[in-house]
Amino acid sequence: MAGPALADHSSEEHAAHLAAQAADPHAGHQGPASAQPGAQVAFADVPLLDQDGRELRLKDDLVGDRIVVMGFVYTSCTTVCPVISAILQKLQKQLGERAGGDVQLISLSIDPLRDTPERLHEYAGRFDAGPGWRWLTGSGEAVADTLKGLGTWTANYQDHPSLIMVGDGRTGQWTRFYGFTDPAVLMARVDELSAAREHSGHEALAQETHP
């Protein structure tokens, strides 16, 4: 049996790839899609701003005990970040009324010096972001502290990997998804976390009924 054929990348495709990286260094960091379960997460208690200029705390005001899907982008990125946002846009559609209810979508800017609330508001509109999808920025220090707590900080924001995190604020279970993850994979993880909640709730009820 013949082995798999090697991809034939033309010189034109290679040149286009290099040009994209030159225009946006972040373009070279999407990598293959992969998942890292059991991610350690801590929430910095710092003020952030959403796309409407409202001050909030990530853990208290958005995560709480919800299931959360969080992406990391910056608005001047023209290659990788729009794809990450489009993935969340598709997920928002799949979630329907659950978005903003038991599931919270979050996009956190990794370029807070340029990404003002006004700029995020305009950018969010490109992806039809509904009320269940919040876009966050803040001071450079606050965003850096937030990224460090989430284990996603890099010294140069353009070197930031393509990343979407899915977790349960109630149980503290988090998974990092690197690369361009299929929205169906993210949805499956959301459903797994929801099912685990229902299972634990049934067990707790059974223990109360039959101590």
Automatic annotation (TrEMBL):
SS bond partners: C77-C81
UniProt keywords, alphabetically: Copper, Disulfide bond, Membrane, Metal-binding, Transmembrane, Transmembrane helix
Region feature Disordered, mapped onto this chain: 1-37
Transmembrane segments: 67-88
Pfam families: SCO1-SenC
GO MF annotation list: metal ion binding
Binding site for Cu cation: C77, C81
Residue stretches of biased makeup (Low complexity): 17-31
Homology family: Belongs to the SCO1/2 family.
PANTHER family tied to this protein: ELECTRON TRANSPORT PROTIN SCO1/SENC FAMILY MEMBER, LINALOOL DEHYDRATASE_ISOMERASE DOMAIN-CONTAINING PROTEIN
The protein's name: SCO family protein
